Amino acid sequence: MIGSIAGDIIGSVYEHENATTLDFPLFRPSSRFTDDTVLTVAVADCLLNGGNYSEKFESFYYRYPNAGYGAKFHDWAGSREHKPYNSWGNGSAMRVAPIGYALNDLQLVLDEAKKSAEVTHDHPEGIKGAQAVAAAIFMARSGKSKSDIKKFVESVFAYDLSRTLAQIKPTYQFDLSCQRTVPQAITAFLESSDFEDAIRKAIYLGGDSDTLACITGGIAEAFYKKIPEPILEQTFKKLDEELSGVVWKFAAKFG
Length: 255
Known about the structure:
Elements: H1 2-11, H2 35-49, H3 53-63, H4 71-78, H5 91-94, H6 97-102, H7 106-118, H8 124-141, H9 146-157, H10 165-168, H11 182-190, H12 195-204, H13 209-224, H14 229-237, H15 241-254
Helix pairs in contact: 1-13, 1-14, 2-3, 2-15, 7-8, 8-9, 8-13, 11-12, 11-13, 12-13
């Protein structure tokens, strides 16, 4: 799942100042982890140590209250009842990567992705986005081809993956929905040649750059099996001891 975190950190400075070329600095002094990383680690912690997603999300929110959460999630975390708010936002998809790595059966992955999403994002599109990303990660780490992943996502989730990045970019704008984030992030992975190329292509699209790159990075790590050492090094430099500790424990248990 470190690929998701790397994508989030690299994309963090390009969310409101979109990259105009593929040749941009991967890390800047202002690069930082956002809510994408915090909630991804919360999912990993839940898989490692048990508990429920609602409790983990609340706990990590209060440990990192200024990570850039959306307004609805702020309200959810601050409420007593923690009722889902029928969201179709991409928050369900950006935090789901650990599920694709931790479970060894596709149906279990889909079921767990739904479970992780619906505590907040109980809209069908919010659930679908999380399931599509988790399934893509599971298939990628299981040795499936890009063609296999594309066909599965198109047939099961009805996402249109026929458009190329060149066709998407001219009209693509900032969008927080799963519907307009997940297909684009998967397409960036499908057109990539390696992990770094996948991250660069996701960020080059524009829009919600950190979340696009977070989703793409999780899939790309699973498929290419390797993240360049300089990216790993810089990523861990941006994490604190608590977050990196969960990441290392997750890697030790699930690979």
